[in-house]
Write a structure and sequence with these properties.
347 residues, alpha+beta, 2 domains
């Protein structure tokens, strides 16, 4: 066991379950049921089989390594796939079993392994909250988790109604025809439901009022942007930035990097409102604006200070350089829950 510094960022769970059109409350399904269903679904699968969506222009797939429950609290351990160009990055076998402690391959990526990085999520269903738990990795990949859970509800949960369909070429595929609270109940009326899972950052918007009220005193604005170097367009942008300042092409790049630059301070209140609106619409936990006022040259007002975020030391058992033991993480979260929530301004 050893103490590690963890950074928590909290999200409000807005949707979880199956919804009739236009209704704000699910007809059936909830967070706890979804997580228990997910755990049961994954229990017989290999890592590769826990994928719920394919790679697209926005993101690479993620996989469920493990899920644990302690009372009302849950933790998920996800593995987020990244592209590799032959560099030495962590990878784990695609045949690793759910719930087992996978061996991390730290040499060049081997055949049959998936390069990536681990992320941890803490669910508090009774409070309608989830939190990213950032340990040594910079990225939390919360948007990938949202996509993962939405796709699970859409195609793999216990509420899915599916049937085999024979195509013209003789091949057979499984087609989803709808959703029921109990698909085995022949008397349950079949209706149209929409599977949904979504969450949003918990923010204290009152802290932004200070910035708005002092818009005429702004003398400097700093912008922080995190680039996800697993995405070709963001990697290309970073390489062009380095070339502009004559630093050349990067060597051995990590999975992300931060860029910090100064924005023109010649702004109006409308400009400030637009910056705040853009920031609030951004799902990133890192992207930020910092405002400096006349007479307070060394005191930036960062928009991120309005987030329900805090750092806390946890006594964890680490399996290897990439994974901590999930039971030890969940035990620490439950034991220190009130202190963490208080520090984040949620109690």
């Amino acid at each position: 066991m050893a103490f590690e510094q963890a950074v928590f960022t909290f999200y409000r769970i807005n949707k979880a379950g199956y919804y009739a059109h236009g209704k704000p409350v699910p007809e059936f399904g909830n967070v706890t049921e979804m997580l228990a269903d997910l755990q049961h679904w994954a229990s017989t699968k290999t890592l590769k089989q826990t994928k719920t969506f394919e790679a697209n222009e926005e993101r690479y797939p993620c996989y469920l390594v493990d899920a644990k429950r302690n009372g009302d609290d849950w933790t998920l351990l996800m593995w987020n796939e990244i592209p590799t160009n032959g560099q030495q990055v962590p990878s784990i076998s695609e045949t690793a079993r759910f719930g087992a402690d996978p061996e991390v391959i730290l040499n060049a990526v081997q055949g049959g392994s998936i390069p990536g990085y681990a992320t941890y999520f803490w669910f508090l269903p009774e409070r309608g909250l989830l939190a990213t738990v950032r340990l040594h990795n910079k990225l939390t990949s919360q948007s990938s988790l949202q996509q993962y859970l939405h796709c699970f509800l859409k195609q793999s949960s216990q509420h899915v109604i599916a049937e085999p369909v024979t195509n013209e070429d003789g091949s057979v595929e499984v087609r989803i025809t709808g959703y029921k609270n109990n698909p085995l109940d022949p008397d349950e009326e079949k209706k149209h439901y929409i599977p949904k899972f979504s969450s949003s950052l918990v923010r204290n918007r009152g802290k932004h009022e200070v910035i708005k009220q002092n818009a005429n005193r702004i003398k400097k604005i700093e912008r922080i942007v995190e680039l996800d170097l697993t995405k070709p367009e963001e990697l290309g942008l970073w390489q062009r930035m380095l070339q502009v300042v004559h630093l050349g092409a990067p060597q051995g790049a990590g999975i992300s990097t931060k860029v910090r630059y100064t924005v023109s301070p010649q702004v109006t209140l409308q400009d400030v409102n637009s910056m705040i609106a853009d920031w609030e619409a951004d799902p990133s936990e890192v992207n930020d604006y910092g405002f400096y006022f006349e007479g307070e040259a060394n005191k930036p007002y960062w928009l991120s200070k309005s987030l329900a975020r805090m750092e806390f030391q946890l006594d964890l058992e680490r399996e290897n350089i990439e994974f901590v033991q999930l039971d030890s993480l969940l035990s620490e979260l439950v034991a220190k829950k009130n202190a963490i929530l208080t520090g984040a301004g949620l109690l």
